[in-house]
């Protein structure tokens, strides 16, 4: 199935929901204009569709092979990766001083979506490299930056994150890998890491591993973990003492190697400290917002791809006669109300998750680029608040939409050749990696709601209310029940927020933790609905100004569908948070066997 | 991962929700006593756990091979199937006159659940054989019954349903396979069928295909389709003119061969008419309730298996320290509120879907066994009403629960060795085959709500209200908000039912069709909640009578969790049906691209 980059929807969301134009006007994006950004999006969309998308099925079929520690990726992957870096796509958000183009996270996010729509297994590699670049920029010594940044920015080399160990998954405090100072500024690293994405591959000549390990005298727990840069090949060209000891046979993203990495079989792998000793987790957290957002974008990406495939199938596949069909022939199944509901659900969830991700990206940009410190701090908190929602909601949407996509295909959806099933298999990793969605929900409730004593989340809810107020004032019947439905969702969110904030600030965590996942969903329904309403209001204004593009009417219809058919779940979620969650711990007696 | 048959939960649901004891008291089940039924369940559970469950992973890994038209199943499958039939399990519900044990559908349903928990790919084969037995009993000539029933009842031979053709999936009117009368009572069948489960295999010496085809003079559409019995080997031992031309590479149930069948390469396959000419679809419909219920049971089954696996993992896997944990060590993740919420959701959905399926089975039994014709007819309508809910809700639950199961495993869930991912892959077919869940929802709204002018559904809702009233009168605080939450769900269902009935009776189908899927879910939330409440009320009564089994308290806790955390979605579904659905057709403009 071909992929068509939805550039106009992407650009519209960037501009009219995430505030791209405002950021340009505010002078935050330097020379970048709206026109130039749209040109870049067009180019990226072409590359994604023409070069990467055709590899997706191959990657799934061939997977990767591991022979004598050497991994070979699927046919065509190395060439595509090389072409992609040579076209400058890896360097798009990178620092200008090291060959990057210094373009905004918002613009790069739109590109990340397209790379991952084309192929999630391809797209996850650069996400890790971009995260490592950030860590190096923020925490690397001048020497390390000089030695590694340029190659990483260009994509000549890739990078990995080595966090997980068999006993240390969500709980990084349990990390056991060790690092011993040699005395010359280097460290000897020993340990085993699992689930290391692109830990070994044949796309580039070198791989730069970022590895969490403990110094000999480190305190126990998370405050005794340091971050090290450990290259596959050392600066003198010698092979470092590390190897890929195995790869996982996974449900999906077969094209992406998931490696068990062994450091220090012999004398110990040589590494360099990144940031301060015992502050490794803080170094990780500085790049966490971006990496989590990027995984959220994978959810958007796979949802978009699954939607496109299901829609194309529904337009082609004919069965029976739809109600009210004209003429004698059979109807494409897209004419059936139940199929329409499925496809609209797919599209609306995809659009809402895209909007939330792009808003998060815009907040990250402002956190870095606002001239005033107070504005930067506010934007940073907004980004922190939205990041877990962007990650968890979007990746849940990826799975839900891909699953509906299988359903729309009927029996053909269950047959691997069709490709619909691959999207579901691929999508299923995103709610797990880069912090499970349960961890995201807990992060949102326990750490993000209390930001600035709750002012950050209250400001976000106030912005949603502003959108609802604008909707209320709209005279056109096109919006139907959009305004009251979204108002109800925002008010549910407001009440649930107050309830959880009280519990968290009073340090009564259990009930708040039990309500965290429904709360994140509720937040996303209200925020997603408000974001689609922002888009719809802009579309309505343009129509009033004579814009005859039918896409504008579609935006209003999609917003209304979301409000009337999806956001209506808000009340039930509020009930779960306000009353159901308090019983979860006691109900756990039912888990005895 | 081992499977433990949840015999006590199964027996409790049969007895205290589905009315097994009442049916025994009413004399509907002959000599069968509660004790004997429980003994049979124990035996079935042991067989499923000890003999079938160990094959499940092998079946997934090896799949089946097709060489020169001959299919070989995975190692151990043939032996297990033979042992299973020799133990008499295939004959359990079969007619006594042909070697069957004539046991109730309700008891067999519990067994079907267990076979499919052990292995869905194994369990689907007998479901088809049992369906064919029903068709033969109802529509076969004495000759055909004499020739085939005994072997099918014992499981010495298996049977298939040959419905689907490339252009005829949900729309059977488009069937093109042809049947020509020879003049000697046989017919020559020609055509191609796809997605034929166990269309070819090495488990038995013969396979009996039931094939839908058109006679030469048949009218177009569904009223021109006839049903034929077409054996792989003819009574004289000659090979019939039919073959397996290919097998599908599927997302899951790899152990089950899904075949393309070609009839009539040469002189035409020899077949015999089942039922009347051009009435083939009616013949199919007589066995539809049972087959759809059986697929619903597959949903229950895979949900149960996924839940058991996730629970075992959550008790073993340790990460960090849970809130309020005593002592110094790490906590099993089952002690974390978010994980508890996940596991309780899995268990509650599984229990609710089991209850609905067993209630459906009990209604089918009464439709066949009630002495009075009016009672039989009422039971038949109740079975007809509940069947699409049992099929669609339970299979959706299968997918949802299996997906949560992957999530509970974290990264390990995405690795195929763990087995959690297989459950998700296997589960995904059940919402598709035997009538997609969209078709089930449409069947529920368009054909089942109007039964007896709406009296059938109104009686069902009245029974739910009776349960709510009993809950209201319960003094114990154990139930928390169970009663008001379930009352709200039942009242939402009542309003939505009235709304849809009005549309359907007024022949305004489009809006009703758009609301069908949310309506089916709403029905299941109210019915599932009421069923769990029936179980909880029985448990509470037993506790009051001195029963100290902790399982009784668990049943109340699970019911309360369902009401407070799952049934609360009812209001949002009602909103979708009453207001959102009316806009779906207009919103379809958003699907243009």
TrEMBL record, chains A, B:
Acyl-CoA oxidase/dehydrogenase middle domain boundaries: 161-265
PANTHER family (UniProt xref): ACYL-COA DEHYDROGENASE, BROAD-SPECIFICITY LINEAR ACYL-COA DEHYDROGENASE FADE5
InterPro entries: Acyl-CoA_dh-like_C_dom (IPR025878), Acyl-CoA_Oxase/DH_mid-dom (IPR006091), Acyl-CoA_Oxase/DH_mid-dom_sf (IPR046373), AcylCo_DH-like_C (IPR036250), AcylCo_DH/oxidase_C (IPR009075), AcylCoA_DH/ox_N (IPR013786), AcylCoA_DH/ox_N_sf (IPR037069), AcylCoA_DH/oxidase_NM_dom_sf (IPR009100)
Keyword Chloroplast in annotation: no
Family: Belongs to the acyl-CoA dehydrogenase family.
Domain annotation Acyl-CoA dehydrogenase/oxidase N-terminal: ranges: 38-155
Domain spans labelled Acyl-CoA dehydrogenase/oxidase C-terminal: 278-446
Organism: Microvirga puerhi
Protein name: Acyl-CoA dehydrogenase
CC cofactor: FAD
Domain Acetyl-CoA dehydrogenase-like C-terminal: 463-581
The keyword Transcription appears for this protein: no
Source domain of life: Bacteria
Keywords (A to Z) from UniProt: FAD, Flavoprotein, Oxidoreductase
Pfam family name, one: Acyl-CoA_dh_1
């Amino acid at each position: 199935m071909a992929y068509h980059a939805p550039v106009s929807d992407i650009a519209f969301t960037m501009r009219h929901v995430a505030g791209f134009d405002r950021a340009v006007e505010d002078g935050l994006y330097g020379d970048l204009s709206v026109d130039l950004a749209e040109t870049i999006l067009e180019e990226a969309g072409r590359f994604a569709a023409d070069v990467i998308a055709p590899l997706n099925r191959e990657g799934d079929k061939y997977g990767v092979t591991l022979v004598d520690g050497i991994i070979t990726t699927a046919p065509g992957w190395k060439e595509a990766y090389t072409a992609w870096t040579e076209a400058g796509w890896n360097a798009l958000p990178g620092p200008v001083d090291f060959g990057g183009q210094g373009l905004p996270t918002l613009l790069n996010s739109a590109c990340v979506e397209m790379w991952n729509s084309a192929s999630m297994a391809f797209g996850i590699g650069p996400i890790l490299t971009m995260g490592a670049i950030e860590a190096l920029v923020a925490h690397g010594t001048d020497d390390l930056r000089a030695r590694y940044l340029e190659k990483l920015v260009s994509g000549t080399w890739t990078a990995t994150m080595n966090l997980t160990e068999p006993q240390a998954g969500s709980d990084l405090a349990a990390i056991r890998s060790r690092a011993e100072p040699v005395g010359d500024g280097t460290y000897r690293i020993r340990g085993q890491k699992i689930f290391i994405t692109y830990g070994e591959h044949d796309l580039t000549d070198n791989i730069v591993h970022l590895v969490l390990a403990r110094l000999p005298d480190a305190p126990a727990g998370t405050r005794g973990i340091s971050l090290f840069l450990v290259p596959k090949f050392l600066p003198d060209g010698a092979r470092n003492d590390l190897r890929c000891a195995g790869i996982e046979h996974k449900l999906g993203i077969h094209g992406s190697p998931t490696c068990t990495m062994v450091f220090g079989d012999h004398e110990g792998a040589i590494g360099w400290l990144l940031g301060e000793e015992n502050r490794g987790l803080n170094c990780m957290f500085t790049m966490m917002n971006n990496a989590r957002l990027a995984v959220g974008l994978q959810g958007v990406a796979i949802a978009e791809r699954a939607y496109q495939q299901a829609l194309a199938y529904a337009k082609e596949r004919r069965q029976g006669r739809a109600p009210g069909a004209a003429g004698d022939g059979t109807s494409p199944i897209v004419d059936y109300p139940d199929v329409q509901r499925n496809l609209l659900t797919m599209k609306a969830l995809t659009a809402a998750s895209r909007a939330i991700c792009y808003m998060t990206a815009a907040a990250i940009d402002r956190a870095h680029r606002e001239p005033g410190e107070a504005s930067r701090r506010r934007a940073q908190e907004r980004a922190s608040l939205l990041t877990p929602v962007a990650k968890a909601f979007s990746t849940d949407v990826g799975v839900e939409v891909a699953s509906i996509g299988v359903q729309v295909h009927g029996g053909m959806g269950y047959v691997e050749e069709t490709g619909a099933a691959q999207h579901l298999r691929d999508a299923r990793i995103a709610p797990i990696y880069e912090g499970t969605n349960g961890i995201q929900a807990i992060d949102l409730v326990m750490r993000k709601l209390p930001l600035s004593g709750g002012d950050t989340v209250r400001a976000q809810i106030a912005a949603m209310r502003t959108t609802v107020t604008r909707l209320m004032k709209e005279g056109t019947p096109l919006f139907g029940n959009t305004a009251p439905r979204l108002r109800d969702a925002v008010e549910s969110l407001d009440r649930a927020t107050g309830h959880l904030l009280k519990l968290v600030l009073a340090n009564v965590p259990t009930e708040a933790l039990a309500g965290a996942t429904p709360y994140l969903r509720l937040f996303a329904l209200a925020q997603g609905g408000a974001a689609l309403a922002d888009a719809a209001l802009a579309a309505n204004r343009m129509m009033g100004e004579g814009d005859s593009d039918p896409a504008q009417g579609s935006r209003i219809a999609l917003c209304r569908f979301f409000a009337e058919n999806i956001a209506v779940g808000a009340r039930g979620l509020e009930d779960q948070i306000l009353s159901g969650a308090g019983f979860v711990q006691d109900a756990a007696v039912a888990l005895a066997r």
